[in-house]
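To the team - S-adenosylmethionine complex, inputs and output below.
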Amino acid sequence: MSVRPSEFAAMPIPAERSAVAPDGSDVRVLLGLAGGGMAHFELAAGETSIAVTHRTVEEIWLILSGRGEMWRRQGDREEVVSLERGVCLTIPVGTHFQLRSLGREALAAVGVTMPPWPGEGEAVVVAGKWRPTVSANEQRDFWSQVAQSYDRVVDLQIGPGTRGRVRERLAQEGRLGNVAEFGCGTGYYTEILASHSAAVVATDLSPGMLDLARERIYAANVTFQTEDVERTSFAAGSFDGVFMSLVLHFTEPEKTLLEMRRILKPGGTLILSNLDPGALRGLDRLRCSVRIVYQGVTGYRRRPPRRLGANVLTEARLRELLAKAGFEILACETLRDPSRSSYIPLEYVKAAKRGA
Ligand SMILES: C[S@@+](CC[C@H](N)C(=O)[O-])C[C@H]1O[C@@H](n2cnc3c(N)ncnc32)[C@H](O)[C@@H]1O
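Output:
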């Protein structure tokens, strides 16, 4: 926010973030003058940002809280600096830089951008020193924005009958006890889960999706909350069952499966419904990829998160990861809408947590 030089301005720091920065951190825009603007940056605990460089602006940062590191490179010169409260550092124009938050609390800083932030296209993604973890922010924003169109578009992508088949299959399960659902989306499966469970905590990363689910579901034994399935807020051994449909491939599957194992009780049940492109052959596989991309682009009209769908798993790989994460597969079935041979089948997998 820039003000005319003759004006005095004052504002409290906004309670909500103003935007997600191109590097994936949360930004709260503060005041500015003709020569520069100030913003508050926050990178959640344990996260690593996307490495970027700025085309025209330079910045000076002061770390307010948290602990972490910043990597900076200019040509052949590079260094990693430790970050903690009170450290001040510069990011000259053209520096490639990346942040990671290593403490128990978020890494927070204020930065002055000079001249003021020019807008879209200023930050360019570059190769960094560490693997970024913040793609969850992009997922959160994308799914919130497309929430209203989701049910229509997904049925065009995978076939109108496919999710119905998964729901029927879920209805055949016995009592599931206390259940957590991750990536519940618009709540398509939440009611059927509720009717087979003592209680369901229906969760999603995207507030926009959760709002729709809340409007749709009236079951008394369902509560809603925001959760990232890769790092949930639940205590170890909290649930008898976990359900997740069309979510695993938007995450780091190994990390997610370990987290699911952690929050399940010994012997607890994990039910997954995943895309199964390996069940299609030749031209059908090609047609299904074209349909998914075409319906997604025309139906959502939003730029998808980077690497959307890059972690789609084959059945063999999923089996391998489940075994490695300490699960025993109890059932694995392919469910599909047979009205078109190129509708992508879903794999319905039920697994039990081995050991304690
Ligand atoms: C393709 S939709 C699936 C929705 C619903 N489960 C279904 O099958 O119809 C993917 C959902 O996963 C959520 N999601 C993506 N990444 C997530 C994460 N890391 N943790 C929790 N939810 C996530 C999205 O917000 C979105 O609602």
